[in-house]
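Colleagues,

For the teaching module next term, I've prepared a clean inverse folding example: a structure given as tokens, and then the sequence designed for it. I'd like students to try predicting residues themselves before seeing the answer, so please don't circulate the second half yet.
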């Protein structure tokens, strides 16, 4: 097994004190504990294995994990507070109970991911793809979902107070028992969405509610 840089004091680059990739001409951020970005990392699978192992006993607060491939991996309960997960691949990943408070998931792939009971308060999911994801019982309060794609997402029982899914695509999504109080669906697509049993009043200004059940 390779020696992990993050086990020592060096190269602990974070979301607020980052290091650029060492690869000549690359403008991506280096991963936490490494000198290079995901695209130039030679041992990607080992890197992810060790992240998961580290997360069992230590939070990943502010870690730079942009573009990292967590697809089909179990990261349930992991504390990703303030982590940078932009463009990360979390498709089919188990994120149940994960703490993603203020995490940056801009343009991340979360299709078919399990996010039940996850804490996404104040997280950034602009242009992220959460289609067919299970968000049942998750905390999405004040979450930025502008431009996100969430086709057929299960948002049952989710807390979406003052979330901002403007211009997002929630077609066929389910909101049974979700608290959508003051959620801003301005310009969003909610075609054939199931809003029956949702709680509170949301802002549907210029939203497409064709076929939606309310």
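(Answer key — instructors only)
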């Amino acid at each position: 097994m390779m020696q992990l840089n993050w086990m020592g004091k060096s190269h602990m680059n974070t979301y607020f004190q980052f290091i650029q990739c060492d690869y000549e001409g690359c403008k991506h951020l280096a991963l936490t504990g490494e000198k290079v970005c995901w695209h130039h990392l030679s041992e990607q699978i080992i890197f992810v294995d060790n992240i998961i192992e580290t997360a069992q006993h230590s939070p990943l607060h502010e870690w730079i994990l942009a573009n990292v491939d967590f697809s089909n991996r179990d990261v349930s309960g992991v504390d990703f507070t303030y982590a940078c997960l932009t463009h990360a691949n979390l498709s089919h990943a188990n994120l149940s109970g994960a703490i993603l408070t203020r995490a940056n998931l801009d343009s991340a792939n979360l299709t078919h991911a399990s996010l039940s009971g996850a804490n996404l308060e104040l997280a950034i999911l602009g242009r992220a793809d959460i289609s067919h994801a299970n968000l049942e019982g998750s905390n999405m309060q004040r979450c930025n979902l502008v431009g996100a794609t969430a086709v057929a997402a299960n948002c049952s029982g989710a807390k979406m107070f003052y979330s901002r899914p403007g211009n997002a695509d929630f077609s066929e999504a389910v909101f049974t028992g979700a608290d959508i109080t003051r959620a801003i669906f301005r310009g969003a697509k909610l075609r054939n969405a199931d809003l029956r049993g949702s709680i509170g009043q949301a802002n549907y200004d210029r939203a497409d509610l064709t076929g939606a059940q309310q």
